[in-house]
Design a protein that fits this description.
Elements (H helix, E strand, L loop, with lengths): L8 H4 L1 E6 L13 E8 L5 H11 L5 H6 L10 H8 L8 E4 L5 E11 H17 L3 H17 L1 H4 L5 E10 L8 H15 L4 E6 L2 H9 L3 E7 L20 E8 L5
Parallel strand pairs: 5-6
Antiparallel strand pairs: 1-2, 2-3, 3-4, 4-5, 6-8, 7-8
């Protein structure tokens, strides 16, 4: 693994104050706004990130719901939690925090090079087969299949390194305030700062795919859940509508010549 990236403080300590969309009214009848900063995620933030994802991501993600990964109110999945934070040491993950330090949104990112690509594909296969949780194993195998089939490095032979958005989530109470857009925009700016020409993201949700498309990403691969079959020819996943497929999106990053 590459050494963590050293970020420029004046670049990343960005404070944003935005009006809610759709409008949220305060007591005076005017639009309410939310104040937050986009800051780097450090290795020390792992436990806080997991706690945030437990509250605002894990139980709503369509595939987790489909397989009953967290059916009980106290259920956890350590394998899922570890998967989500594995790339934090790469030093390129971001979070939106309120003035009092509460996490309002996260964007967990990783860096992958072409040289690592073949190793990643082989390691991913082994990782999926060895996962001890049978429900999460199904999801992990799908994600690894999508990574291989989307073949982004093969589709973009001029790209030697990409920034991969692994997980993105926003506090339910803060949605509509532009936090997801701010996190994605900062991720793209980070890629530009580091000379990384492409950002990649998989979307397992219909709604996340629509949101990502609005942020300037282009779909380069689609797998319908109805076409992802088990050994008996039955769909492995039958999520609730409108979630019908997983999509891979990319966003080319203009780099200085």
């Amino acid at each position: 693994m590459e050494s963590p990236i050293t970020l420029k403080n004046n670049y990343w300590q960005t404070r944003v104050s935005e009006s809610a969309e759709p409008a949220t009214m305060n007591g005076t009848g005017t639009k309410a706004s939310i104040d937050y900063s986009i800051v780097p995620v450090s290795n020390r933030d792992g436990d806080r990130i997991v706690d945030f994802l437990r509250r605002f991501f894990f139980r709503d993600e369509p595939l987790n719901v489909c397989v009953g990964l967290l059916d009980g109110p106290q259920d956890t999945c350590p394998e899922l939690e570890q998967y989500c934070i594995d790339s934090i040491p790469d030093g390129v993950s971001l979070m939106a925090v309120s003035p009092n330090g509460n996490i309002l949104g996260v964007c967990i990112n990783g860096i992958l090079s072409r040289e690592q690509d073949n190793c990643e594909k082989e390691d991913s296969k082994n990782e999926a087969d060895e996962c001890s949780n049978p429900k999460f194993r199904k999801i992990l195998k799908l994600l690894k299949n999508v990574y291989q089939e989307s073949n982004v490095f093969g589709q973009f032979p001029e790209v030697d390194k990409l920034l991969d958005i692994r997980v993105a989530s926003v506090d339910d109470a803060c949605r509509g305030h532009g936090i997801a857009k701010a996190l994605f925009d900062r991720t793209k700016l980070l890629a530009q700062e580091l000379g990384i020409p492409l950002v990649r993201v998989d979307c397992t949700s219909h709604f996340s795919a629509k949101a990502v498309a609005r942020l300037g990403f282009h779909c380069v691969y689609t797998l319908s859940y109805s076409e992802y079959l088990d050994s008996e020819g039955e769909p492995v996943f039958v999520p609730e509508l409108p979630h019908t497929c997983v999509k891979t999106f990319v966003c080319p990053i203009p780099l200085a010549q």
